[in-house]
Known about the structure:
The protein is 30% helix and 20% strand. It contains 8 helices and 11 strands.
Amino acid sequence: xxxxxxxxxxxxxxxxxxxxxxxxxxxxxxxxxxxxxxxxxxxxxxxxxxxxxxxxxxxxxxxxxxxxxxxxxxxxxxxxxxxxxxxxxxxxxxxxxxxxxxxxxxxxxxxxxxxxxxxxxxxxxxxxxxxxxxxxxxxxxxxxxxxxxxxxxxxxxxxxxxxxxxxxxxxxxxxxxxxxxxxxxxxxxxxxxxxxxxxxxxxxxxxxxxxxxxxxxxxxxxxxxxxxxxxxxxxxxxxxxxxxxxxxxxx
Length: 251
């Protein structure tokens, strides 16, 4: 009976293994986040030099590595730039933890980590106070999400709720105007003047917003797009929606 004395190493699975963040911007943002638990930093000498140029490393244990070793750990598709940071998932907040709330982005069962990461990045750029996701049907924090967010995962508070309807009701009770986005809506999005707090609600591609979510929106609107294509990738739609909805605000 024969057996392989040197079985292949098991490939890292980001969906159930440790959380590795990678890429210089992403890792720097995590290192700067005092609330983030950092377990191990793996970096090439060049990447370590570039990280030290942008800030402190802190007390996280550091291991020198090579690009090939990082490719083997993270997968060849991971654009790691020579650095990976093992962390605990970022702490999630509750609705009562953040005040005031002037601009909130709500994701109704958007599951693609690329899209969630890109929306986080856009939300950060537009000064959103928080991004709300559901406890179910939302992606686990992974390096893919963090890389797409380009550091925003450690800059914009993530609020996780069990019941999205209850969360929307609570936001409305705090004086926020809830705008739901749907390419089939009758009304076009108009810039909002003044400083009324806004909630931007986006649904999953294909399914869109759930019926209960629609019912709780103060307005259902669509983006004004004159071309023949009337729907966009949800992360692109988020960028346009945030720009259009906040264009008339004073701050």
